[in-house]
Amino acid sequence: MFSEKCLRKHVSIIHAYSMMSALQRKIVNVLLYEAAEKNKNDDSSSVSIECSLSLSKVAREARFNSKNTQYLKEAIDGLASLKIEWNLLKDRAPTDVSFLNLRVLHGSPTFYQEGVFKFSFHKLMLELVENPAIYGTIDLDLQSRFESKYSHSLYENSSRFVNLQKEKTIHVDIFRKMLGVDGDKYKSMREFSRNVLKPAIEEVNDRADFLVNIENIKQGKSIVGFNFSENEKIDTAKTK
Predict the structure, then answer these.
(1) Which end of the chain is more exposed for a tag (fewer CB within 10 A), N or C?
(2) At 205, which helix (H) or strand (E)?
(3) Each residue's pLDDT tens digit, 144-195
(4) Helix, strand or coil, per DSSP, at residue 14
(5) Which of 29, 155, 46, 45 is nearest to 104 (CA)?
(6) 60-69 long-range contacts, Cβ below 8 Å, gap at least 24?
């Protein structure tokens, strides 16, 4: 069961690689939702949608419970300069979208003393969250509960495969990127499994409304990829 605020994201902007923190991943979805709602009533010829939001609302939506406002500002501001590799699984995307220079935010946010800031998204980005042909559904309330960036990323990436009735095979190098693992970290499969994969699966299966199952694909003794499958959790109360 989804909450009132859900975001349908085209899979090309879900299956992506960046060094976003867990907080930044949550913030992006909160800002995208706000901008997409405003864009529904926009008929201007501008290439971007400009929005304003209070820091307190972002903190509440992202479950940022600290009083360190400066840290929150820095997390938001850092989104404008993040380099992102989009569409890692090479899914179909609108032909007019160029991923080469597509940024999360269209320029840097502007902060004001009243606790409000302005931000903008290019309309090309918003096209990818407005009635996308292939998508994952992100529950904004649920996504705010994830503590690890790896868990949050696994939740987003898995949302696309729920109830597809088939497995998805992903090469290990692509999968590491999808989870946002730095190329220099957890190079051995043992480290990757212990520090990234197992904790992420546990947190997603505990908090999400679906279950993730990931099986190793081996070539000899080496793990070269993973088989993905997801299913919605069964509401035991309704089955009794």
Answers:
(1) C
(2) helix 198-207
(3) 999 999 999 999 999 998 877 778 899 999 999 999 999 899 999 999 999 9
(4) coil
(5) 29
(6) 61/26, 61/30, 61/140, 61/144, 62/23, 62/26, 62/27, 62/30, 62/144, 63/26, 63/144, 63/145, 64/23, 64/26, 69/115
